[in-house]
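Incident review: delayed structure delivery

Summary: a single-chain prediction request sat in the queue longer than the usual turnaround. Root cause was a stuck worker, restarted by the on-call engineer. No data loss occurred. The affected request and its eventual output are reproduced below so the record is complete for anyone auditing the incident later.

Affected input:
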Amino acid sequence: MPARRFFASKAARRASVAGVAVLLVAAGVGLWYSPWLKFQTVEVVGNQHQATADVVAAAALVRGTRLSSISSRQIAARVDALPWVGSVTVTHVLPSRVRIRVHERVPAVVVLGQGHNYLVDAQGAVLQEGTSGYPQLASLPVGTLVPGQHITLPAFTTAIAVLDALPEALRGRLATINAPDQDLVSVTLTNHTSILTGVGCATACA
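Output delivered after worker restart:
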């Protein structure tokens, strides 16, 4: 009899714990879908070049919207379309805040276009118009570019590969990379030496 009472008591305790767990889950679900949890403020972190106002505008959040009805995936997709944004993480912060964490793209080259210069990352994303301080990529057959556009030319990909392969000793002396074609990319140094690469070409000339 004592053993039977012991097992009965143990089963009762288990049932009690399970019941409490169910109630907590139900309370959590009820709280999440409660009309009391409404969006009021947005927090943008991680951005240095992309303006916070641009991120907030792209997120298109409306104050008073129930948090449970705000899609993190949809917000991330809208913000990800901004020129400097490489990836986005969206988090709901109870009771009324949405946090948008931006991971920005890293500039690689300045593409010299038709009368305009464009800062571009290694994947070909045009970040902004005009700047300096990065390797210059010239002779690329592009027209007018706009921030957010992607350069998909094979000549651009080849030029980036050539840039990545340059020894550190040459990087500091780099003036311009010319890429009129993927099979003919040349590197011009500050002393006017040209290093030619491409199909059937592997020479250096002054």
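Verification: Residues 17-33, 199-206 have pLDDT under 50 and may be disordered.
Action items: add queue-age alerting; document worker restart procedure.
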